[in-house]
Specification:
The chain is mostly helical. The protein has 16 helices and no strands. It starts with a helix and ends in a 7-residue tail after the last helix. This is HDOD domain-containing protein.
């Protein structure tokens, strides 16, 4: 999907009453500041600080094992200095998304974003550990994990009974999104791609969201590596919760090959992720 096609798809989505959420003003202000090339960690922290809720959530994310380094940062400015301004923008996008799509009073949305955060944290950890193999960084993987299924809450806003089983039991994972898409004649991957483009995510991240159902063979390099990271992160999340990962049956060997892991080492690798405090059963 190219830029012209995505513009047409945006118009088609609007015609069907599907609302692509706009970026919050704080992200627009942050992007504008960075476009001037006259910024430092203090000025970036000041812009983010205009939204105390966003600042607090970013600070919490930066405390995760994959991002904080050996010692947790003591302030938002220190966190920005440690991970870099570009990385901070990626984290800010990911955090802001969860407050821009959905109703905070709706249990289904709360459950959806909790699962997305779990996936994002695991993806960041996998990317950090595999960076020498894939050249995907933790902040990029975290952002991709948060945006991965963002088409779902967008479609839930348009079709209240899309993924209605999310309301039934928090121990259930997502229903078959392919079946949901067929039922409503939509494509949640394409909607997620449109959100990613509208929020100006890097193109390889947007393409990974579009193609994440498989490990794309025609999309090499960063797209394929990022999709593999997301599959492994989701496999770890489901396994920790003792939920069978049917996708892994299809793509597991390709994922491990892309990430430079041997199948015999998978159990130890997943155990190590869980020991680091991420992906434990809820």
């Amino acid at each position: 999907m190219n830029a012209r096609t995505s513009e047409a798809s945006l118009a088609d989505a609007a015609a069907r009453g599907i609302r692509i959420p706009p970026q919050p003003q704080v992200l627009l202000d942050l992007a504008q500041l960075m476009a001037t090339d006259d910024y430092d960690a203090r000025r970036v922290a000041a812009v983010i600080g205009r939204d105390p809720g966003l600042a607090a959530m970013i600070f919490k994310v930066v405390h995760s094992p994959a991002l904080r380094g050996t010692r947790p940062p003591a302030s938002l400015e220190q966190a920005i200095m440690r991970i870099g301004v570009g990385q901070t923008l990626n984290i800010a996008r990911a955090v802001a998304l969860s407050t821009s799509v959905g109703d905070a009073n709706r249990r289904a949305y709360e459950l959806f974003w909790r699962r997305s955060r779990e996936l994002a944290e695991l993806a960041a950890l996998v990317a950090d550990e595999r960076v020498s193999v894939c050249n995907i960084f933790a902040d990029q993987a975290y952002m991709a994990g948060m945006f991965l299924e963002c088409g779902v809450p967008v479609l839930m806003q348009r079709f209240p009974d899309y993924c209605e089983t999310l309301l039934l039991d928090e121990r259930l994972d997502f229903p078959s999104l392919r079946e949901e898409d067929q039922r409503f004649d939509v494509d949640h991957c394409s909607i997620g791609y449109l959100v990613a483009r509208h929020w100006h995510l890097p193109e390889f991240v947007a393409q990974a969201i579009l193609h994440h159902d498989v490990v794309p063979r025609d999309e090499l390099g960063a797209v394929r590596s990022l999709v593999a990271i997301l599959h492994l992160a989701n496999h770890a999340r489901l396994r920790a919760q003792r939920i069978h990962d049917y996708n892994w049956d299809r793509v597991g060997l390709e994922v491990l090959s892309e990430l430079g892991l041997h199948p015999d080492d998978l159990n130890d690798y997943l155990a190590d992720l869980q020991e680091r405090g991420i992906g434990s059963p809820v």
